[in-house]
């Protein structure tokens, strides 16, 4: 396959090859209803999007899969298939109503359709600026056959804007030179400049670049074994370090005019005469658009967090992001030296001068069983979602156990910690109604309502379903501090309601809370809250849908809150 393929020719090839495919049948979006009583939600309903999903569709976390744009728009890019080794294409979906409903783009086909079934797919997503209507830029690792030498790094973009359906494709790199390029990521600068860092199964990194919106591509840097030699000079908490043995996931962060390369490498760490292979995070900078790079340095000056030194970071167990005021942070899962304890999340933050390392997942709670969900294991470690909002805050989301009853009954929820630009808040559970999901991925940025979109895959089955769940980021820094003295239900904002509206409420003490929306006849329209709520102030977003996720008609509606044997009611108006 040529390294330079015009958009027009490749688009024709994709369209033609898709028309020849008789099997498998391309399944549509799933209905926007969810009635599974095991994982039924007390609040916003889970939206089941598509089946044909497996863990490679939404992993690794350092490669974004869901992104938000202003105005309630979301974009998702992922592979779908019948197993982890049999894919029938790469699909894109978008939403213009804060994730409530979704549309496939292009409407009747994948973005990239294989001439024969792909045996491996990994994807990553970036969005352009408002000048291009937040056009999606994507990169994918696709494989036909069993050998990594057959992998192609395929670029695709809808330069007409998010949801336009005018996709163009090109080959960003292949392995015709004998390398084993694998697991690409993507970063876009000023719309035209696109950077694609790629790992090599031999242990190197490559950096590919396009300066013309993805039309033509070239390799501009090769991070080989010699490049990593400066890392060996700092052994941190170890006696010495040798290697590196292999490179894993790469990611490029843009901070003003500077590019920051973050990746993890496997090295042999020695204490006395004993060594173990560990995964550790490094970083480097470029001030000339990726042409030259500084010497690499360890993110953690101790190489790994103290007392978490036996294994290090898993290739799929970290993510990185940058806040709107320029603070770079990395979320990573580390196994402890004490094998009787569970893995913990740490955050590494760069403030422009130094990196600091903070444990953000609390220690195991021996009394309640809380915070014991991150057991050592491949699946559960893939939870390192680093998220930012427009107010300079950073967030880390993951799934964890919030209580254990007896010997076997563990209760799972979505946990989060917030970085306000200075310090991390205590971690807390923001949702305890969803049950257990093997794989969790979170949009890399909050939408302009302050919500993030969470993707959930229930099991490890090869043909599983992706569910989507919006969650607010509001108030988590003060969630464990209660200054509320009385129960209160605020007027929804905005009112009248045309799209989404937010309802703030507060309770003086923890307990069971219901918050429902009713029509003029007293008929229940939507259950927004129905479960145990901590004392304090909270908010919930109503997206003008009923419990079947159908849009409601214009008119007068009431919302009623019950808590601690008290009831409060407010009126709101919905307009067409």
Percent helix among the residues? Answer: under 10%
Would you tell me the overall average pLDDT? 84
Distance between the termini: 52 Å
Report the sheet-strand fraction.
Answer: over 45%
Query: Biggest sheet, in brief?
Result: 5 strands, antiparallel
Query: Which structural class matches the secondary elements?
Result: mainly beta
Spatial shape:
globular
In the predicted model, the low-confidence regions spanning at least 5 consecutive residues are 1-26, 32-44, 475-484
Number of strands: 36
Q: Write down the Rg.
A: 24 Å
Number of helical segments with 4 or more residues? 1
Describe, in plain words, how this protein is organized in 3D.
This protein is mainly beta and 576 residues long. Among the domains are: 1-31 and 62-187, no CATH class; 488-574, Immunoglobulin-like (Sandwich), CATH 2.60.40.4070. The protein is 2% helix and 45% strand. It has 1 helix and 36 strands. It has one helix at 7-20; strands at residues 47-53, 66-69, 73-83, 86-95, 103-104, 120-127, 136-143, 152-157, 168-174, 181-184, 187-189, 193-200, 205-210, 218-223, 240-255, 258-271, 274-286, 297-298, 318-322, 328-334, 344-350, 355-359, 385-388, 394-405, 409-419, 428-431, 439-442, 451-457, 464-472, 488-489, 501-507, 511-518, 524-533, 536-542, 555-563, 566-574. Strands 10, 11, 12, 13 and 14 form a 5-stranded antiparallel beta sheet that branches. Strand 6 and strand 7 form a beta hairpin. The longest helix is centred in the first third of the chain and has 14 residues, at 7-20. The radius of gyration is 24 Å and the shape is globular. Residues 1-26, 32-44 and 475-484 have low confidence and may be disordered.
């Amino acid at each position: 396959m040529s390294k330079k393929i015009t958009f027009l020719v490749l688009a024709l090839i994709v369209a033609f090859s898709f028309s020849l495919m008789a099997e498998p049948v391309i399944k549509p979006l799933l209905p926007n209803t969810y009635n599974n009583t095991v994982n039924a939600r007390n609040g916003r309903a889970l939206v089941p999007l598509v089946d044909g999903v497996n863990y490679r569709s939404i992993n690794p976390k350092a490669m974004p899969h869901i992104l938000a744009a202003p105005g309630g728009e979301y974009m998702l890019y992922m592979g779908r298939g019948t197993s982890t080794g049999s894919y029938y294409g790469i699909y894109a979906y978008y939403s213009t109503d804060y994730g409530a409903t979704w549309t496939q783009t292009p409407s009747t086909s994948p973005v990239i359709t294989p001439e024969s079934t792909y045996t491996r797919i990994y994807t990553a997503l970036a969005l352009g600026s408002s000048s291009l209507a937040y056009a999606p830029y994507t990169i994918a690792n696709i494989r036909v056959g069993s050998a990594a030498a057959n992998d192609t790094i395929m670029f695709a973009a809808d330069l007409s804007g998010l949801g336009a359906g005018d996709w163009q494709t090109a080959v960003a790199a292949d392995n015709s030179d004998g390398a084993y390029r694998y697991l690409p990521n993507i970063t876009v600068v000023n719309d035209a400049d696109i950077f694609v860092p790629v790992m090599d199964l031999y242990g190197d990194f490559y950096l590919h670049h396009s300066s013309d919106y993805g039309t033509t591509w070239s390799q501009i840097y090769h991070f080989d074994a010699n490049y990593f030699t400066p890392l060996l000079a700092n052994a941190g908490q170890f006696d010495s370090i040798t290697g590196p043995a292999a490179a894993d996931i790469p990611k490029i962060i843009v901070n003003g005019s500077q590019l920051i390369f973050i990746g993890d490498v496997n090295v042999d760490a020695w204490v006395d005469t004993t060594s173990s292979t560990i995964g550790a995070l490094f970083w480097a900078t470029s001030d000339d658009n990726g042409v030259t790079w500084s010497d690499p340095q360890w993110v953690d000056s101790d190489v790994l967090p103290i007392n978490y030194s036996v294994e290090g970071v898993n290739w799929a167990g970290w993510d990185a992001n940058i806040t709107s005021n320029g603070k770079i942070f990395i979320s990573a899962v580390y196994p402890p030296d004490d094998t009787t304890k569970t893995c913990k999340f740490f955050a590494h933050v760069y403030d422009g001068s130094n990196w600091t390392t903070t444990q953000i997942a609390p220690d195991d709670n021996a009394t309640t069983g809380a915070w014991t969900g991150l057991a050592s294991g491949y699946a559960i470690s893939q939870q390192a979602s680093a998220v930012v909002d427009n107010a300079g805050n950073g967030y880390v989301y993951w799934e964890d156990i919030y209580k254990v009853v007896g010997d076997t009954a563990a209760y799972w929820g979505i946990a989060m910690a917030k970085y306000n630009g200075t310090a991390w808040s205590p971690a807390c559970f923001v949702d305890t109604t969803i049950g257990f999901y093997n794989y969790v991925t979170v949009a890399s940025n909050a939408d302009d309502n302050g919500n993030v979109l969470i993707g959930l895959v229930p099991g490890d089955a090869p043909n599983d379903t992706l569910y989507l769940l919006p969650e607010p980021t509001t108030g988590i820094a003060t969630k464990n501090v209660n200054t509320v003295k009385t129960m209160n239900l605020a007027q929804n904002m905005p009112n009248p309601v045309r799209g989404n509206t937010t309802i703030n409420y507060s309770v003086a003490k923890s307990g069971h809370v219901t918050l429902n929306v009713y029509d003029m006849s007293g008929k229940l329209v939507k259950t927004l809250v129905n479960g145990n709520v901590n004392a304090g102030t909270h908010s919930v977003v109503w997206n003008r849908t009923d419990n079947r996720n159908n849009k409601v008609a214009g008119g007068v509606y009431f919302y009623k809150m019950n808590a601690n044997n008290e009831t409060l009611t407010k009126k709101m108006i919905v307009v067409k």
